[in-house]
Amino acid sequence: MSAAAETAAPAPAPDLICDRSVIFDQAAFDALLGAQHAAPAAEARAAIVAHLRAAQKAGRTAIADAFRADPFRSRPTTMGYTFLTDSLVTSTLRAAMEVLHPNPTPTEGERLAVIAVGGYGRGEMAPFSDVDLLFLTPYKITPWAETVIEATLYMLWDLKLKVGHSSRTIRDCLRLGGEDFTIRTAMLEQRFLFGDVALAEALDTRLRTDLFSGTERAFIEAKLAERDARHVRQGQRYVVEPNVKEGKGGLRDLQSLFWIGKYIHQVQDAAELVPLGLLAEDEFEDFVAAEDFLWATRCHLHLLAGRPTEQLTFDMQVAVAEAMGYEDGQGRRAVERFMQDYFRHATQVGDLTRIFLTKLEADHLKAEPLLERLFKRKPRVRAGYEVIGNRLAISDPSDFLSDKLNLLRIFEEALRTGMLIHPDAMRLIKSNLDLIDEDMRTTAEAQRIFLDLLLKHGNPERALRRMNELGVLSAFIPEFEHIVAMMQFNMYHSYTVDEHIIQCIAQLAMIEKEELVEDLPVASSILKEGVNRRVLYVALLLHDIGKGRDEDHSILGAQMVRKIAPRLGLKQDEVDTAEWLVRYHLLMSDMAQKRDIADPRTVRDFAKAVQTVKRLDLLCVLTVCDIRGVGPTTWNNWKAVLIRALYRQTRRALEDGMEALTREGRGTEAKKTLREALADWPRKDVQAEVARHYDPYWQGLHVTAHVVFAELLRNIGDNEIVVDLHPDEDRDATRACFVMPDHPGIFARLTGALALVGANVVDARSYTTKDGFVTDAFWIQDADGNPYDPARLPRLRKMIERTLAGEVVTREAIKDRDKVKKREKAFRVPTHITFDNEGSDIYTIIEVDTRDRPGLLHDLTRTLAAANVYIANAVIATYGEQVVDTFYVKDMFGLKYHSESKQRSLEKRLRAAIVEGVERAAN
User: Fold this and answer.
1) pLDDT tens digits, one per residue of 492-542
2) Which CATH class is domain 6-213?
3) Distances (CA, A) of 26 to 12, 22, 124, 131, 336
């Protein structure tokens, strides 16, 4: 290869994160390389690799230190890593060509050009990005070129670089690029590094003339399909542990936008898309801001993980937020502030990508076949609109903007026609949000349009999501702005707050359209009978409006509803009801999941709080939608049974009077039902079974459990332990019934046995018989929150029996299982312990709200047993990493815990057990 042809790649622009000589000292390497010409090849190679390894370490340290000192300066950082990589690659190539395998008179066929492709070719590198190289030769690769390539790669591998490489001719590149759009995209971003310039330029020319030209439509279609498939893999919504590179609104979406612009218009920088009309000036600013933020996030993620990771897991979110300088404040953690910024940028990327690609799709993709266009019925649009490419477009922008209300009307028209909004219309809306002012918000017509969007067209989710993405929802309801893209840093919520609200509205619309009658019979029947839909939709839209502040979001939200609801057109009595619903929107869920709804006092207290059937109906539907809107797997049969039972009992109490809730009445009814179920038993045996139980037993269990316990007790021996495991399909759990002689601490032993087999307890009830036996019923689920497979039950039973027989020491055996996963350690879950003597006529209710972990329930019940506390039943409500364990208890004399000193003593013991368990789980 001639000296003239052998040219190093032009260095990236000078805006690096620190001085380039600090990143890589070129003079020092040149001096070293010059000294190796006379050395044996093996010694020369070792010296070169050692020097480059030290230079790489120093360069990476310099870039990382400068970046940590200025943690948002991502563009110079990515260029810094690119410059360092360029220096390492070209240095190894020079070493291979000049020292290890010199060839002073190369033939025409021994020309070699080394080209960076993909992200490396684009000049954007995170700390651990792949190094994608194309070794280009004019003809079939020669032995000399093969030797140089091999020597170069081995040195790069010695430097621990993750190198993707290919050796091809120009013809190979054209053929493979024609077959595979991934290869074509990588070559679209090719950048010459080293070697024969003329060969590299020939490839560039041939790619544009022979491969790219004339195939723009196919490329756009491929990129659109690739984006859709990627979003299906990663999630169509902005998920709470996003993939910075591949996820919706991530870097790949921005890159796709740029790739298409470059493919069609040969632009070299995103700024060149502005004069072409593909990006407006403000959209380009959004592009740059999002790109800078996402790259900064990705670089910090790599540096903190020490490897090429792209997933912002919960633990990494906390670390990245700290690295970027976010701080706690105003009732929110630093990580929540960081993730809100992340999701705001991701949403901006989604908007840009949608507008950009939709416009290109309209300009470049195939039109419908002529016959389809002739016979396809076009939707009739109102005056001021037109249909362009099957999308709703604005005929005259100036006329459209002359009436502020058109910024709302267009969404009504889109719902009415079922059409998507044209990208030019979206741009016009987004750039004129300032027209939505206080005067516009308070007009009767604006209120009508907005309520019609919720109530009239049957698909409010679509309108709300597009309004939210374009900023119209926050402009019309300014209080909504605060919760846009707000992440709730926990494992319970799958969506940001604004997306959660939209998911809730979608659930309500589906129930109204009778699409969920089988899953939600009660909520469906309530809506079919009729409720005030205006109140229900507005309350659901605003139920979390108070989140993200120091105050209780239910109380603050209710105060905000008092101001917002009248602006939306609600009358005063409707405002009062909506305010009440937002204030108490968690009440029914809490009562159902954290209290014993078999206790008449629970239902009585709930009925007193609700007061009317009208409120009960509204609250029930809102509660169902709220839980279902948390995430795709949050709602299950267990929650359905609890909500349904609480609703029916409360409605009966409100309609027939509180006397319908007496213990005696329930007990009499339960005994009668059991007698009917045991009709084939001798009367004497039935009488004995009915007589052996105290009153609480009859109201706390369904007749199916009463029958099981009757069978287990019928022939039990004095020291026998009997177990029945049975799937309870109605509750999405496995029911585990235990009967054995009563003695102190038995409840704790049972929770230990269940913890040891990996069972999650979701409900538990304990009763003693008059003849000295304990009858305990537990509802358990496996690690995935499902009932146990019937095939696993025999093994489960054997393990439980071994534990109860004392063959396994629970405390020791459970240690290895009692661990908190790494990604969950970042959550802060403060412990709250409360004592309630008013919520039950018989028991003190101890509520322990703390961090969930395996073995927690066993630790708590063992602690209570050691303090001679009798546990009647336990109700377990889990919210991701948080759990609320509620115990209905008495002291050893059968009395409530009224004494504050006894309460403080118990609380101290329970907190000590929790702390001890946390320390055990951390080791």
Assistant:
1) 778 889 999 999 999 999 999 999 999 999 999 999 999 999 999 999 999
2) alpha beta
3) 15, 10, 21, 20, 43
